[in-house]
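From: lab user (bench 3)
To: helpdesk
Subject: output format question, protein + flavin-adenine dinucleotide

Hello, I'm new to running complex predictions and I'm not sure whether the block I got back is the full result or only part of it. Here's what I submitted:
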Amino acid sequence: MSIGIVGTGISGLHLALRLQQFGIEATLYTAQEPDGIRQGPPLNFVTRFDSTREREKALGITEWASSAYDNASMQMHIEGPGGLSFGGRLPRPASSVDFRMYLASLLEEYGKRGGKVVHRAVADRTQLTELGAGHSLLVVAAGRGALVETFPRVPARSPYVSAPRQLAGGLFHGVRPSDPPGMTMHMVPGAGEIHAPAYHSFGGRLSAVLIEALPDGPFSAVTGGDYRGDSDRFAKDVLALITRHAPALRERVDEREFALARPVDMLQGAVLPVVRSGWAELSDGTFALAIGDAWIANDPLTAQGANLGSKVAFQLADALRARGGAYGEQFCRVVSERMWATARPVVDWTNMFIGEPPPQMGALLAAAAADQRVADAFIANLDRPDDMWHSICRPENTDEFIAQARSVRSGV
Ligand SMILES: Cc1cc2nc3c(=O)[nH]c(=O)nc-3n(C[C@H](O)[C@H](O)[C@H](O)COP(=O)(O)OP(=O)(O)OC[C@H]3O[C@@H](n4cnc5c(N)ncnc54)[C@H](O)[C@@H]3O)c2cc1C
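Helpdesk reply: Thanks, we reran it on our side. This is the complete output you should expect:
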């Protein structure tokens, strides 16, 4: 019997394509046709780091490999009095491509390679259970929709009970790329963050602007505004917010050109960070595993959710291959704890970043602003969650990380 995979985001697609390579039969259940994905609004502004790009290479996905989509650096600005700025290079470039284009093309590719795709929405646990009877294992990769209820929240791993940020963003013309071209993050104490990566969408190169607002703070008017049918007013309000709070970003904006690429290219929402149980028994002897956002949702601030979804999909594919069948409770229990070991540094790091920063964070950012080697080492860790978490989880680790970064290239 085959594996059933519900959902065609990066988690479900990378799993399906990997299983296909391994010769393991899988059926993808999708609520959306590729053109429906393309025509919808953006649900995110994903940057894929090099590790994810390497997995795409392993899958033989070449369409999004072009250096035209590269973002090779990240600049950080802590705004306001006592603020600081630094920029670091990623050892290998990340890629920022509109996920509507990316996911639609991967779904088509899976079909072209002979993969089985069933177009149907799986409404609830009852339908999931019916589906489970026809598969040796179900994998739920359906994002943050209704099916998450199948997997109970794990309070000990989920410190937030309400979303720590409200989100609003869009794909804009009229923002000059940073120098060097890449991603920029503007952290505004007491208000939130503005993330502005260079981005590739349907019309070519532009910029994503994502506002992360602390609840009831100065950014809330934009994240909570009603802009239905009024994309011009949205652009105007975003520009006013940038002008007031992120001068370095404002310098890159040409006011006459600043506008959403298309009215559909905006989003508003929030992510409640949560870790759910990684597996559930659907009926006697039938099990479902959760991956991606269906299992763990992270705030987008650290740009990790999609990268983690891909990593865990590969890890699960390896485990399914190694096991070769009979995916019962013991298998689900063991594999989901192994996947948790992979995911945990991302969760801990992201939750620390969106919370009240501990003193070692301030020390690290100051050291990065003072020394390019520290800045580069810090930015490189965006693609190394284990190292990132290790370097910030305790003040003494941060001291060690800074000292090591300072010594490496000077040969001390
Ligand atoms: C504004 C924003 C910016 C972000 N930036 C980044 C970033 O830079 N880097 C990064 O790594 N992550 C980022 N993320 C997080 C990232 O978008 C998610 O973690 C990732 O896309 C989750 O992928 P997924 O495959 O698990 O789920 P999803 O992408 O949500 O896919 C779920 C799929 O399941 C389908 N589906 C849902 N319900 C059903 C159903 N009932 N039946 C059948 N199918 C169903 C959906 O149609 C969809 O195809 C960002 C998120 C946001 C909101």
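A quick orientation on your result: The chain has a mean pLDDT of 95. Let us know if anything else is unclear.
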